Amino acid sequence: MRDREKPVALSVLTGQTQQVFSLAVTPDGKTLASASADKTFRLWDIGNPARATPLGQPMALASGAEPNVLFRPNSRTLVLSGGGDGLLRLWDIDVSHEAERICATTRGALTEQLWQSRLPQVEFHAPC
Q1: What is the pLDDT of residues 72-86, one digit of tens each?
Q2: Taken in order 89, 90, 95, 100, is the CA torsion positive or negative?
């Protein structure tokens, strides 16, 4: 990762095992998405570029074309392609929206156990 104003290495991101084909940064500049020839993409916290850290685990794609990532303008929606099926996938990476999606999917049957499996980093509060 480099600062355009001062081309000095700020950080080295490791974790993907093959060449990285695509990078995208959220409009707020705090999250980076990377897509690699190893058929994975992952998210990085780059709020402090000198201490960039991975967010979660790499996410694997089915075999197919090289993955490509970008963020929709003015949002935290990740657009992902390259799954080999010709589809674009949209991922809302805002964790605060996850509870709403879980409630809609489970029709109000959100248990603390399900919450912990999906949102382990957030304290449980029955949202439904």
Answers
A1: 888 888 887 876 677
A2: negative
Q: From CA 104, how far away is CA 61, in angstroms rounded?
A: 26
φ, ψ dihedrals at 14, nearest 5°: -125, 155
Identify the CA nearest to 52 among candidates 3, 91, 122: 3
Every domain of the chain and the residues it spans: 1-93, 94-128
- Using only C-alpha atoms, the chain has a radius of gyration, in whole angstroms, of 16
* Nearest one of 96, 92, 91, 103 to 119, comparing CA atoms: 96
Strand partners, 69: 80
> Tens of pLDDT along 12-52?
888 888 888 889 999 888 999 998 888 888 899 999 988 88
